[in-house]
Structure formats: C-alpha cells, structure tokens
Specification:
The chain is mostly helical. The chain has helices at 3-13, 18-38, 44-55. α1 (3-13) runs parallel beside α3 (44-55). Residues 21-48 form a coiled coil.
C-alpha cells in the first residue's frame, strides 16, 4: 500500500463509530493471520497504520 492510500483510509477511519471500528479490527485480524500463514512481512508503514487503528 502506498502512503497516499493509507492516509486516505486513515482519514475515513476517523469518521467511524466504535462498532464500525470493531468490525474493521476484526477484518484486519483476519488479514494479519493470512499474512502470517503465508510468511509475508508487513512494511513499516503498514505496521504504523495498524497501530493507529488499534489505538482508537
């Protein structure tokens, strides 16, 4: 993902309510599990983005 895509997604996330964020976190967890199983590593940018989602 590019920095532009992540910043656009981040601004959209700021508009969501708690239930919507909970649903997104669940989807992120599923994606992380898939990446872990495949052995694919996250970029630093992706890691920071995910940290931002879980801080809310």
């Amino acid at each position: 993902m590019s920095g532009i895509e992540l910043s656009k997604i981040k601004s959209e996330l700021e508009r969501l309510d708690n239930q919507q964020l909970k649903n997104i976190r669940h989807e992120v967890d599923k994606l992380l599990n898939e990446k872990e199983k495949s052995g694919e590593l996250l970029s630093e940018e992706e890691i920071e983005f995910i940290r931002g989602i879980y801080k809310k």
